[in-house]
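TA notes. Do not distribute before section.
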Amino acid sequence: QGQYPGQGQQGPYAGQGQYPNASYPGQGQSANRAPYPGPAAPNPSQGAGSAQGFGSSQGSWGQGPSGQYAPPASGPATTTQRGRGTGMKAGAVALVAVLAAGAGGLSGWAVSSQTQNDAATTSSSVAPSASGTRVIQGNASNPDWTATAKAVSNSVVSISVKTGQGTGAGSGVVLNAKGDIVTNNHVVAAGGSGGTIAVSMGDKTYEATIVGTDPSTDLAVIRLGQVPKDLTPITLGNSDQLAVGAPVMAIGNPLGLSGSVTTGIISALNRPVTTSTGDQGQASGSDSAGVVVTSAIQTSAPINPGNSGGALVNADGQLIGINSSIASLSSGSSNSQSGSIGIGFAIPVNQVKIITDQLIASGKARHAYLGVTTATGTATVAGVTTTGASVRSVQADSPADRAGIREGDVVISMNSTTVTSGESLVGLVRSRKVGERVTLTVVRDGSQQKIQVTLAASAR
């Protein structure tokens, strides 16, 4: 397992399997973004799935090409901050770089910008609501983004982490008036080991401590030591009601440029994204050490290092996701780049709410568990071949076993959502609550049937 990329002479990370290499937009000594080739998704035709049966096939790690430093970046970002990132283990903090892959989903590694010690045309209004601030758009088909930005800007903060190994930064979103802030685990992972966490809101900075972290979903909650009177919680949306093509805004702290907003659309929903970070090797419920699988929102809103943990909101200013990862061109390509190429990913807000409610209540989170190991496979019904999650084994007395799922079944949907791969099933199971009843559509011996399963809590 690899770790976060360091600065300067830090070595490259190898790619794996049949997928292209992910690049780390790390920062050099002059804030030049340096791409590192990261691992891609395991080959879905090899290896066994998770020992805990979350459904992901895991193949062997392959060797990829060496990384190279990118040319100096232009614009103010190259002079404003030398580097930002999280996960100080070897130095990452901002986002997770991910590459488009094949049927097995998307894969990549946490990326960051970081520094080490060695170096509108319609009338809209903004109104308070019970849980935060909401926007009343005058024209839903032509949003007034100025009103949206005004509504959410005070609910999104900049986060900096400092340890003996270096400093890093990311973003966060205010959840409530008590001072609880959600961010990515990889943003604050080092803050609990002798590090300090600072939260900036405008021209004021406050100390914060970790309430709880959940490496397997890459989410964390921190709490302000002193809560300002004008703290503004964000309004939560419903990610189950999202539609492809809907307009969205991303807001955060890219490359240290706090309060930056970008707009785009929802490009896809339930996109299986696999990311891997060295600091997440003990991830409870992850399918292998350091692997996080998310059924993500894909967006065209530009996301860059430092946006990690920031907000993805709809035109009404409601939080619909936590920005966590980006896709990158292959670092082996002459056109390689480590910033945004218009393919970013966010953790859906409904999953964020499930995890953060638990972290605030107890500092820990439980995860839904199915009890199968899978690989990406195909099934044929009435002459039509469909790709899905092929069940390789079923754990005894697991939810899947009790529901009657068998080895050889191919899962092609959960509730109304299509399952396209082993990783897709993992992400969908991870997004549900413990104790929730779901309907799996499976193909067995050429026939399609529906099986209801009550998800249990993972032992990990």
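Switch to the second chain here.
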Amino acid sequence: MIIVSTDGSCLRNPGGAIGWAWVAHEGGRFDSGGAASGTNQVAELTAVLRAVEAHPGAEPLLIEADSQYAIRCASEWIEGWRRKGWRTASGSPVKNLELVQAIDRAITDREGPVRFRWVRGHVGNPFNERADELAGLAARDWAEGRGEIGSVLIADLPADADVVPARTRTGEPVAASAGAEPRRAGARETAPQWELGTLFD
């Protein structure tokens, strides 16, 4: 089973810069990105969508998130909304419909099953904390005008971040089994400056 933690960040909800991230529990792979404006719900849903898209195949995928909204959208409410023509029980339009439908397609198109597990945030879960940190870094990059050239520089990660990016600056995937040593903070002079993808690539 593949286990991935996701998280989203919004610096000023609603309307502030957002960031999203997923972190795989094995292999050290992660990805993150953001946008100049959004909501915390958009950030959380985008993190789930990108996690599903990044892990195709038949192996079961378990997504851990601290957002009950994102989990319930993707696993509980979505079937009823689909049956009702993408309307809620009260008849109002589903919020964040484009993202919800994209998640629905990604899960439906994936060969293996996708399951979700809620975890409490900010209680020391290392993968949840890492996803939270990456999402926050991405949101700050977008708020400071750096989002168009990439969301997170690997050298900006903390010294104990034993992870490698899912994609390089050119968008080429980085194989988890490539055998490369993880890039760490302070490696700006000796390691390539890999940038992670954005919401719009």
